[in-house]
Design goal:
Layout lengths: L22 H8 L7 H13 L3 H21 L5 E5 L9 H8 L4 E6 L2 H5 L1 H5 L6 E6 L5 H8 L10 E5 L8 H13 L6 E9 L3 H11 L9 E2 H6 L5 E2 L5 E2 L17 E7 L2
Helix pairs in contact: 1-2, 3-4
Protein name: S-adenosyl methyltransferase
Pfam family, one: Methyltransf_19
InterPro entries: SAM-dependent_MTases_sf, SAM_dep_MeTrfase_SAV2177_type
């Protein structure tokens, strides 16, 4: 293992509020992680009482991301990844999957959550051949993201932009679209965009649970229609099977007929 490329600011300088449930910690709890507090577990349990399927959505989302990265490395030849809104480290993070297949891969993680920053050292562990870095930035600060990421990534080479369950935190849809456009404009032809987000219009019980969560005082997460998620890929070449429920995106052989869940995503190439 090598030292991280970018050392995050000391975690003790960051204020972590343990009295209010936080979406990243709740998501980590649903994924089976340990980086959460009793308030997060209580909120997560309350959510699952209304909609037990949220655990399936969380874990299926992670499976989708893993299959995306495997495709990007093994079939598309991508060796650079910009993962914006990475969340808390659990199993099979972007660098683990990518560098497991191509040790020379370079990964830049972006998040602005103090809890994620406190655990960034785990994300920054890299193979000797590759590099990883962490940027403390909001998804809306695209100029800062691109400026700092360029210290680790070569934007003259194809790069995969990962936006996994982050655009739902941007309430204004037009702003979310502009974030995607700005980041993809900075990447060369042959780059890829991977997006997955919670979808509206599939499961009314999920929508009820999410609306209640958004009204609880926690950081809201906005579900979007499948058409709205698909539109994030405008101007790009979607990889088959297009934008589908994450369980339906190139499932593992022998995994059976995938269940359609209210989490949609896709992968597309910049021509």
């Amino acid at each position: 293992m090598s030292d991280p490329v970018t050392t995050p600011e000391p975690a003790e300088q960051q204020k972590i509020d343990t009295s209010v449930p936080h979406s990243a910690r709740i998501w980590n709890y649903w994924l089976g992680g340990k980086d959460n507090y009793p308030v997060d577990e209580a909120a997560g349990d309350a959510y699952t009482e209304v909609f037990p399927g949220i655990v399936t959505i969380a874990r299926s989302s992670r499976g989708f991301l893993r299959r995306n990265i495997a495709y990007l490395v093994s079939e598309a030849g991508i060796r650079q990844f910009l993962d914006v809104g990475t969340g808390l480290p659990t199993a099979q993070n972007t660098h683990e999957v990518a560098q497991g297949l191509a040790p020379e891969a370079r990964i830049v993680y972006v998040d602005n959550d103090p809890m994620v920053l406190a655990h960034a050292r785990a994300l920054l562990y890299s193979t000797e051949e590759g590099e990883t870095a962490y940027i403390d930035a909001n998804v809306t600060d695209t100029d800062r993201i691109l400026e700092v990421a360029a210290k680790t990534l070569d934007f003259g080479r194809p790069t995969a932009l990962i936006l996994s369950n982050i655009l739902g935190h941007v309430a204004d849809y037009d702003q979310a679209r502009s974030i995607v456009t700005r980041l993809m404009e900075a990447l060369p032809s042959g780059s890829y965009l991977s997006i997955n987000d919670g979808s509206r219009g599939i499961d009314p019980v999920f929508e009820q649970a999410q609306d209640a969560y958004n009204n609880s005082g926690a950081v809201p997460y906005n579900l979007r229609s499948v058409d709205e998620i698909t539109a994030f890929f405008d101007g790009l070449e979607l990889v088959e099977p297009g934008v589908v429920s994450v369980t339906e995106w190139r499932p593992e052989p022998g995994s059976g007929v995938p269940e359609v869940i209210a989490e949609h995503g896709g992968l597309a190439r910049k021509p």
